[in-house]
Amino acid sequence: MNQAAGSRLRASGLRHDVQSLDTMTHRGWLDTMTHRSWLALMVALVVLLSLAAVVGPRADAARASSSAAQAGSANSSAAGNQGAGAAAAAAAAQIKTLKVTILSTMLVGDAPGLGEWGFSGLVEADGHRVLVDTGAHPDTVLKNAQDLKIDLSNVKEVILTHNHWDHVRGLMTLRREMMKTNPVALSVVHVGRGIFYSRPSPKGEVNDMIAIRKEYEASGGKIVEHEAGAEIFPGAWLTGPVPRKFPERNWSVSGKVQTPQGLVEDTIPEDQSLVLNTPEGLVVVTGCGHAGIVNILTYAGQEFPNRPVNAVIGGLHLFPATDQQLDWTGDKLKEFKVANLMGAHCTGIEAVYRLRERAGLTRKSAVVGSVGSTYVLGEGIHAGALAK
Length: 388
Hints:
- By secondary structure, the chain is an alpha/beta fold.
- It folds into two domains: 1-91, no CATH class; 94-387, Metallo-beta-lactamase, Chain A.
- The protein has helices at 3-23, 26-91, 140-147, 165-168, 171-179, 208-218, 293-303, 323-335, 349-359; strands spanning 98-104, 120-125, 128-132, 157-159, 188-192, 200-201, 204-205, 222-226, 230-233, 236-238, 256-259, 262-265, 274-278, 281-286, 309-315, 341-344, 366-368, 374-376, 380-382.
């Protein structure tokens, strides 16, 4: 094809295209628009892919930065919470003056006083006076207090650690006698949830507290039932029923208890202890420690984190424990940094000696509790002559 012919053909094609555009036939319009639409779509796709290549890494970086910031914020929040918890523990009320006197237990350290299978202790802390348990016989604590020249008429509050007869039978004798001097003496009793549950047996009801409750309330006394820990005055925390993290099973009874869930093994679910927060550490007063002393100290540690235990006073119900159990318990007491142990009532004489050895205590700092023995904050244990 020569050049002139080619030019004529291109001119002819051009005129045809112009004519097509001028007439804008329906088919030509559709063909033209379809071609342009596909072209526009391809261009848009290329643009989007280019943007993704640029924006994607930046978005990933932004998300990573945001995640790091959130993690940092969460860590800061957690650290802040821990710091707040530590600050709260440090700011918790502390008892500055404290004396605990044993008024009922098996051993009598000096001539005055009567020994019995039971427990009672008087707690005097920053002007507050609280009686923990009331002994086994109706008049033992009353007579021992008289012999020791201790006036209980201005003691308003009583803590009953659990339902057993050797801790509760002195309550009404003391209430009636002290009311003669002071109507509000021993007028408030703190108990743990479960203390009034029925304990049926072939011989009938064996829970003394069911009958005692009626008599006590008839005298005008008030009962405060605790299902969880509670501060009863600044620096004094009552555990209420203690969670049983470890299977210590520190009880001897094999009876049943009627709970809301039915008749089950009596594990003494209401067992509670008194925890006193002092500048030298925690002082824990138990009745029998049926919840297990390690469980009790573990629970107290949750309320007062990172605090050593300056003293454990009262019954621990370890007299029937095996050597292995005593060794384990003594090792745990050492972990809690227990500095003083006055094992009274059902702790057991041999058990005290074994715990002393395993916990790294001395003859002065770990003794068998006796009637009249005392613990004084800043001084330690003052044992009776026979208990030294």
